[in-house]
Amino acid sequence: MAAVEKKADSVDEKVLESGSDIVQGDLTTTHYVENSEGVTEEELATLRHVRDKMPWTAFLIAAVEFAERWTYYGTTNLYGNYIRAKLPPGSRDGHVLPANRGVGVAGALGQGQERAFAIRTFNSFFVYVTPFLGAIIADTKWGRYKTISVFSIVIFLGHIILVGSATPDSLAKPNTALGLLILSIFVMAIGAGSIKSNVSPMIAEQYQGKLRKETLPSGETVIISPGITIQSIYLYFYMAINFGSTGAISASFLARDHGYWVAFLVPTCIFATVPAILWIGRKNYVKTPPRGSIIIETFRVIRVCVGARWSWNPVAFYKEVKREGFWDPAKPSTYNGKAPEYITWDDDFVGEVHRTMLACKVFVFFPIFWLCYSQIDGNLGTVAAGMTLKGTPNDLIQNLNPISIIIMVPIFERVIYPLLRRWGINFSPIKRIAMGFFVAGLAMVWAAVLEHYLYKTSPCPNHLPSECETADGNPNAAPINVWVVSGPYILVGMAEIFASITSLEYAYTKAPQRMKSVVMAFAQLQTAIASALNFALTSVNVEDKFQWLFASFGITATIFAGIFYFTFRELDRAELELNMIGTGGRSGFAGEAEGEGRPEKGT
Q: Where does the record locate the signal sequence feature (predicted)?
C-alpha cells in the first residue's frame, strides 16, 4: 500500500513532524495514505467508507448521455423488425393497420433474420471501434469537451439520413432505403463511438475530491472515499444511459402505429437538445485539455517492446513477455543518454504503460459477456415475435432490460453495496465482474429453455415460430405469453450492474490521469471484438439454431466467471495501489514541464 512514512531522529529533539506521532519515551510512526488528506492506514482499515457529494456538472454530462442513448436505442432497437420483416399488409411506411395491431408486427425492408442480424452486428462493431478515433482526437487536438461537441453534430446528421431512409418514397425502393440506412449507421457510429471514449471519463473527472475523514452529524467519523464516489457516479451514469434506453418504448409504438419515419424522427428531435446541454455547463465543466498523442505514444511504446522480444513461437514469446525487463527497450535510460529519436517519452511514461496494461488486462475476458448481451439486443426480439403478443409490440419487451437497471441501480447503490461494506464484505470490482459473467450465463440458460418450449408449442412445428402465419398473412403465435421472455432481459440487466458498470469504474480508476481515454477506448473495444465474433457466427444466429446458441453462450459465460475470478483475484489485494496509478502531476513526455496538462475548470 502506498503510504507516506516519516520518523523523528530522536525523541529528545521533541520535533513533531508531519506524518509522525511522537510519544514521550517512545517513538510511534504514523503511516499516511498517499494523496489523502491526513488519512492514516489504520483509519483507512477501520473506519466506515462512504461516498462524497457528486458535482452538478456530472449530472449535466449524464443528461447528454441520456439524450444520446435515447436516440441510439430509440433507433437501433427498431432495426430488427425494420430490416427483417416485410411491410405489413396495406402499409407504405411500416405501420400496422389498426385492425391488425393485436397480432401484427411492424416491418419495412423484408431482408430476413440473417441479414438483419448482420447489419445490427455491423452497427455494434463500428460503434465500439471508433472510440479510438475520438480518444486520439481528444488527446491530441481538441480535448474531451470539444470532441464531444463536434461529434454530436455528426450524430445529428446521421439521424437526418436515417429519417430519410424510412419515408414512404424511400421504402417504395427497398435498395435505396437499405443504402441510406447503412450510410446513416456509418455516420452515426463515427459520432457515437467518438463520444463514448470521452463522455465516460469526463463525467468522473468532474469529481476532484481526495481521500479524507469527516465527522457526521451523528458523531461518527467516516472515510470520504473517492473510489466509492466514482463507483456511485458510474452507477448513476449507467442509470442515465438506461433511462435514455427506455426511449425505445415509445419508438416501438410509434413504428407500429405511425410508421418508421415518425419513429426515427422523434429521437432526432430529442438529440437536438444535446448542444444546449453542453453549452449550459461550458463555464463550469472540469475540462481536460489535449495532452499530446497519448494513444499513439502508448502503441509506440508497446511496439518497441514487442519488436525487441518478438518470436513466432507463441510459447517463447509468452515467456519473453513475462520475463523481467520486457519494457526496458522503450526506456530512455536504457540507452545511457543516446536514446533513438523516436523515443519521445520518459521512463515514467513507460512505467505507466506497463502498469496500465497489467491493471486493465481484465477487459480481455469481456467479449463473451457482450456476446451474451448481444442476444437480448436482437435475437430475443425474434423469439418474442413467435409468441402470443396480445397487442404488445415484440420489440417492446427488450425495454425491460433498461427498466430493470433503472430500478436496481438505486437499490444497489443505497442498500446492497453499503450493507456489504457495513458487514465488512469486500465486494471488489473483480468479484462484481465475475458475478456479472455468472448472471449473464443464467440469462442465456433461461433463453435456451424458453426457445425449446417455443418450438415445442408453435402451431408451425416444421417452420420458424416468428414466421408462422395464418391464411390471411398475420402471425400465428405459439401459446406462450410474450412476457415470459422478460427473464433474460432482467437477468442481463443485473449482470450489467455487476460487470458493465464496474468495467467503466475499473477503466477510469486504474488508468493514469492522462491515459483514461486510452483505457476507456480499450475497454469499449471488447464490444467490437464481440461483434466481430458474432459476424463469424452469423450462420448460427438464425432462429432454428437459437436454442443451442443460447445454451452455448450460457455455459461459456458461467465457465468464464470462474476462470476470470481465479485469474485476477490477486488484483483485489492491490486495489488501492492500482487506483493510485498516475495520480501525480508528471507529464510523462520528455521536454514537458511537470504539472502541465492537468484538468482545467471552466476553460
A: none
